[in-house]
Amino acid sequence: MARYPTPRFEDKVCAPEDLEQRLAELPRPIVFTNGCFDILHRGHVTYLAQAAALGASLIVAVNTDASVKRQGKGIDRPINPQDNRAAVLAALESVALVTWFDDDTPARLIEAVKPDVLVKGGDWTIDNIVGSAETLARGGQVHSIPFLFDTSTTATLTKIRAGEGKE
């Protein structure tokens, strides 16, 4: 029986407790973003590629399943469990490292990473981005990247649940 290697992208998934060592191995400037990334869509991958272009290494932190549930997105969310969401993100060329956080905000993780660039999507104003004041105080940059595509996981799930697109 043939043996197949574990895909290399799996090595880009990093437990928070291993983050310090892994950060030291990444080229700077480090860009940081976070989110649920439940059902990856064009808006997500476009945003992540744009974020990655702002530095040398993009770190993506995903909310744990419990953290997603606390956000009130619906009782059945997340659709995809944390490990699957992290692996799919890690498979993207634009992503250097994927980790996770269980708090309601990524504030503690951002302070541990101390990114050179902090990024969120266009629905966040810079003054409302968690960690923006601290990042700016360190001399870093904070960006709110405008959406190029009108896509969202919530809208996709609403469409699926309504049976739209059935023939």
Automatic annotation (TrEMBL):
<keyword id="KW-0119">Carbohydrate metabolism</keyword>
<feature type="domain" description="Cytidyltransferase-like">
    <location>
        <begin position="32"/>
        <end position="127"/>
    </location>
</feature>
<dbReference type="Pfam" id="PF01467">
    <property type="entry name" value="CTP_transf_like"/>
</dbReference>
<dbReference type="InterPro" id="IPR014729">
    <property type="entry name" value="Rossmann-like_a/b/a_fold"/>
</dbReference>
<dbReference type="GO" id="GO:0016779">
    <property type="term" value="F:nucleotidyltransferase activity"/>
</dbReference>
<keyword id="KW-0547">Nucleotide-binding</keyword>
<keyword id="KW-0067">ATP-binding</keyword>
<protein>
    <recommendedName>
        <fullName>D-glycero-beta-D-manno-heptose 1-phosphate adenylyltransferase</fullName>
        <ecNumber>2.7.7.70</ecNumber>
    </recommendedName>
</protein>
<dbReference type="InterPro" id="IPR050385">
    <property type="entry name" value="Archaeal_FAD_synthase"/>
</dbReference>
<dbReference type="InterPro" id="IPR011914">
    <property type="entry name" value="RfaE_dom_II"/>
</dbReference>
<dbReference type="InterPro" id="IPR004821">
    <property type="entry name" value="Cyt_trans-like"/>
</dbReference>
<keyword id="KW-0548">Nucleotidyltransferase</keyword>
<keyword id="KW-0808">Transferase</keyword>
